[in-house]
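Problem statement: downstream parser choked on a complex file, so we are re-checking the raw output for the EPU run. The parser issue turned out to be on our end (a line-ending mismatch), but while we're here, posting the original submission so the record is complete.
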Amino acid sequence: MRQNVSLKPYNTFGIDAHAAYFAEFSSVAELRAVLEQAIPPVLILGEGSNILFTRDWPGTVLRNRISGIEIVRRFTRRLWVRAGGGEQWHALVMWAVQHGLGGIENLSLIPGTVGAAPVQNIGAYGIELKDVFISLEALELETGRVRRFDRQECHFGYRDSIFKQQERGRWCILSVTLSLSTDKHRINTAYGDVARILAEMGVARPAPADVSEAVVRIRRSKLPDPLLLGNCGSFFKNPQISLSEWENLRRHYPDTPHYVLSNGLVKIPAAWLIEQCGWKGRRVGNVGCYEKQALVLVNYGGATGQEIYALAQAIADSVRKKFGISLEPEVNVL
Ligand code: EPU
């Protein structure tokens, strides 16, 4: 256990907050051992790619380094893969496509760990983690007991799960088991530019590896690399409004992009709302709204978490004023 440790290398916003105590663990036994000495409150950290520190952490930060990827069951056209919570998510995607497995190729290049993926039910280009999720194993921080959560028990929603709601902060996710296809893959190229990029690549019948490559190209062209420019991907969720709110909005702004959802709600791209308020590409001191994707807030270097949070609030205020829509952070603000 180290004391007064800078978290700057451990969060992709690159915020120089400090943890009073800090340790890493690579196994359940190590986790149990560090928990015995840990001063509360305890925070489990993966790669810190969806977290904004607005203050120092007064207790103990524990970084999950549990690794390993293994095939645990085989079926005719699918198999179950279990990955350690500390594995990099993208490394798991690369492992899958290199083995010819399908199901998570649309989730290529998402920063973060495997253990963090279920917490916000990561999603991109028409696929969410829940679509391939079988179960996870988690350790209860208070008692040290390990239990399994299946898909229903995780209460997955849009960028949401039980681990962001009533079970928030209570569990460390040790491993995640996914079901991947070995054959007859369900290739999904319906979202945005995926089909166009595949056509540009000259691929007519894409394999999972081709879709992965197309998604990597799209993400590289739109989203900043956290190693070069601090960020946490989308800062806000895309808001969902009722049909009557939508009717009212379209009367004033008929060109608003929108997607009618199966639950009767209408999803509006937050990036569009933010761009209409004039924020896209705008810099305020050390922080800014990314020039190529308005939903991404960036740290140009040396920003505090408070500065980023103040920018987020200013953006949310102007969207509320102009459109009457409240933006909710997707990133965990601590
Ligand atoms: N748009 C703008 N201005 C912009 C960017 C986008 O007006 O600067 C509008 C366009 O109408 C565009 C629409 O927003 O068609 C959607 O944009 P995009 O495809 O880039 O996706 P997004 O809704 O902004 C979501 C996820 C991303 C994910 C992409 C692709 C959320 C909060 N974000 O972004 O996830 O990669 O779709 O599936 O749902 C993340 O969660 O950190 C993340 C990056």
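For whoever reads this later: The first strand starts at residue 2 and ends at 6.
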